[in-house]
Request: fold
Amino acid sequence: MATRGTPGIPEVADPPRRRAGRPATSILSRTLILETGLRLIDERGADGAGMRAIAKELGVRPSALYNHVAGYPELVAGVRELISERIPTDMFDTLPWDQALSEWAHHYRAAFAAHPPTIALLAVLPLSEDSVTTEMYERVVASLGRAGWPVERHLEVLVAVEAFILGAALDLAADDDMMNPGSRTDVPEYLAAYRARAARLAAGGRRAADLSFETGLRALLAGLRVELEELKGPDPDPAAR
Reply:
């Protein structure tokens, strides 16, 4: 070991040098485990993102994960929370209910389209007791209530919109050319529609999934507006508007 000193002063050993770089193993946390789980679901699907696979990825024993996550069901629930946290809801505080739903739908679709394998996995998962997703739903239904929707209809509207969003997220993750009829000649109307859409997409520079999403969302919200007006009934004093 190297030493240093000056005449008349006892030599002192140099302190041991710290190795540069990251530690051999990651410092475990719930967030790290959930983010690793989400990444593995994206890369390998749900079957490739179990507790053992995550432990191997992080270089720890599976038992170490259980100090932060109770098991696979809690892991999946936590992954949904990660995605839900990325969906803003502040628009429900400032915009009319239909405009807020439209903006929320765009963010919601983008969040799940970034992780296509999670859609089927998370869409049927029951809510956990302390779910962030429940807090997101609270903002949505509160906006519906302020707009005049009867409370017994809130979840119908929410689930209808959410089901459309998740389907649209799957469509966004699909191949742009998945509906190509190829060289078939026995479906002339469909072939003409496909070619006409292709020409429109080429001219506008947009994806087919985006156009379908916008069309469907407009139709869904237009129908809900009409239904809400019917539920409210005729205005008793049109002059007071």
Observations:
- The CA atoms of residues 42 and 198 lie 30 Å apart.
- The first strand starts at residue 3 and ends at 4.
